[in-house]
Fold this protein.
Amino acid sequence: MSRSGKNPNERLKTAKGRSASSVRWLSRQLNDPYVKQARAEGWRSRAAFKLIDLDEKFGLLRGAKRVVDLGIAPGGWSQVVRKKAPAAAVVGIDLLPTDPIEGVTIFEMDFMADEAPQALTDALDGPPDLVISDMAANTVGHKQTDHLRTMGLVETAVDFAIQTLAPGGAFVAKVFAGGTDGELLTILKKNFTTVKHAKPPSSRKDSSEWYVIAQGFKGRADEAAQDS
Ligand SMILES: C[S@@+](CC[C@H](N)C(=O)[O-])C[C@H]1O[C@@H](n2cnc3c(N)ncnc32)[C@H](O)[C@@H]1O
């Protein structure tokens, strides 16, 4: 072991033929304890620990019956859902292929496609009580464009959650740069009893990602009108 506590064999010895950013990424992966732990415990992604952390703090998966996983690939979050809430029906969607997970219906589809919301809700036998989104737009390197594209995904995920969640349900989404934009936050606060932001310990310190956690869905206005 070196004085830094890292195994020197796991350091990259040569950068030949690799760009500086890919060397940095690979080096970070090889030295990341969460990557090692994910591999050892059979999670498909280190992201699994973020949902584990968020669940420990907010009790999201306790009693969950129907869960929608937006941006499911490679499947770490859905694995966590199935482990912590084995009775839950899960449906997920991603642009990328995801290897099958027992008990999970998976769509390889753009969540922004018109037919996506219907496909997701049709796969469940009732309204979801939890919608989780770890979606992130592929970055193009132009800061403003990247921010807008990711916010577009979050906004659509919020709309979907508000249209589909069962009363009392919860919504979790990855957001960037410290939190949710003003207008989106107003919508969330109007529709949920509590809205909080958290950065799980497993989220990389140098990443600007945060998560918004909205719990206690108040129900759709049209439903409330029907009930009265
Ligand atoms: C950080 S990864 C999700 C990791 C996942 N939570 C896990 O634990 O394995 C983000 C995913 O969002 C997906 N994504 C981005 N935009 C999307 C879109 N418009 N529709 C569906 N998936 C999308 C990406 O393809 C990527 O797989």
Observations:
- Residues 13-39 form one domain.
- The pocket of S-adenosylmethionine is lined by residues 44-45, 47-48, 71, 73-77, 93-96, 110-112, 134-137, 153 (CB under 6 Å).
- Residues 11 and 28 are 9 Å apart (CA to CA).
- The chain has a mean pLDDT of 88.
